[in-house]
Amino acid sequence: DKLHVDPESIGEASVDFGLIVREIPVAVLRPSHPEDIAILVAFAYNKFPIPFTISARGCGHSVRGQAMARDGVVVDMTSLGNKTTVSWSQSLGHYADVGGQQLWIDVLEETLKHGVAPVSWTDYLYLTVGGTLSNAGISGGTFRYGPQISNVYEMDVITGTGHFLTCSPHENPELFHSVLGGLGQFGIITRARIALGPAPKRAKWVKMLYSDFSAFTTDQERLISRHRRDQDEVLDYVEGQLFMRRNSDSWISFFSSLDHPRLMSLVTEHELLYCIEVAKFYDECTQSAVDKDLEKILKDLSHGPEFLYQKDVGYVDFLNRVRVGEMVLREQGLWNVPHPWLNLFVPKSRIADFNTGVFKNIVLKKNMTTELVLIYPMNNDKWDDRMSAVIPDEDVFYAVGFLHSSGFEDWQEFDLQNKEVLHFCEDNGIKQYLPNYSTESDWIQHFGPKWRKFEENKAQFDPKMLLSPGQNIFNHNQGMNSKIDGV
Ligand code: FAD
């Protein structure tokens, strides 16, 4: 009774946020307990004459079918329900044990009841813990706190053989490191022990505008060079965006309507503006010092003083800011549309060329991009190289995200632009985040020196290649042919 084959269940599991790919499973499992998943995987592994594939699905916020399983079984993780337990220990301080199926927004709400909160976030909180830990989980706090995968102490994982294992840096470390950033290839995360810190109450939220790219990146890099967790004069969040006239709907709402005419004429004059977005959190204890601290941190940056805009918002409102945009888009019927996204990690040494080669020579010239373009740096030393996630081999690298929305008829045009961008990226040490490749050689190139280990781990933890076939890493023959043009 937990396996569903009705058209509605199958239909839901066949699409994702991208609305570009469709893969039809034979059934959807709605587990009540993690044991239900272990039984399914063990059955596929041991008993079934021909193994079938199995994909954990968080919310299906992937954009290229990564949580799908053609002719296999999709596990609807969210049916496991909510479970967050907050604890404290001498060695870890506060931590939370959370289900892999849980949304980060629910983890936040539960932990706040104890005056604590996770330290590392994504920009959007309606993503599952298992889904983001399978990638990395990044946002403006990554420069200081590391990605979400750097803030996990322990996990329970069901491997591709149906075994239920607890893993940590000390217990089954190979499994622990391979699952984090492992694109769902080695096991299904049913519990994660997450690092927590004291929950702030409010955020000073500041945006600064630049017309000069070099000044923009110099200042961003300077801001993230102060990244000690225990320091006062450090920001909690540093991101950045590309402002163009054409994508003004994606950035203008932050600013007061009185500023809109000035901003529009600025962006018309310069064609491209670069915006540094920062936040500093505070509570009752730090309230009296926060303005001074912020002033010190932002002192001597190269934007003109008239190009700084500031807000003071509640901590939860800050963390949950993307939800507001989602609601507006939903109302306009613009949320459930194709999302031909492209996310990249660009090494610091290539970012100036990237500005010329991509922002100016592709994005600006094509004049198609109407959505958010993110660009922000992070520090390599906040990542753990033993994990499966792949990042550039430089001390500082940039996350660049083209978060396109399109119509059902024209998403291919955005994909053509993406291809041009990827062509520019070839041989530049640039990596895809939330990667999407269709051939084994592309994956081998993506993982670089980590490929051998990745393959060995697959052979150990999922030898029959049952898990997360929608990533198309080990299941090429099954995946790509059935992908159809738009859903
Ligand atoms: P799904 O899309 O359902 O799954 C993703 C992959 O993980 C699949 O391969 C799936 O099989 C596997 N998986 C899912 N659950 C588990 C589990 N429990 N155990 C093992 N494998 C599992 N990412 C960021 O890093 N930072 C951001 O700021 C950010 N913002 C976003 C904003 C929006 C609006 C959207 C749509 C996405 C954003 N993402 C961001 C991307 C997001 O991290 C990915 O979509 C990710 O896959 C999480 O989505 P999900 O939980 O729905 O996972």
TrEMBL record:
Matches recorded under Pfam families: Cytokin-bind, FAD_binding_4
Reactions the enzyme catalyzes: N(6)-dimethylallyladenine + A + H2O = 3-methyl-2-butenal + adenine + AH2
Coiled coil: none
Domain FAD-binding PCMH-type intervals: 21-199
Organism domain of life: Eukaryota
Protein name: cytokinin dehydrogenase
Classification via PANTHER family: CYTOKININ DEHYDROGENASE 3, GULONOLACTONE OXIDASE
An example molecular function term from Gene Ontology annotations: FAD binding
Family note: Belongs to the oxygen-dependent FAD-linked oxidoreductase family.
E.C. numbers: 1.5.99.12
Names of the cofactor(s): FAD
Keywords from the named record: FAD, Flavoprotein, Oxidoreductase
A GO BP annotation: cytokinin metabolic process
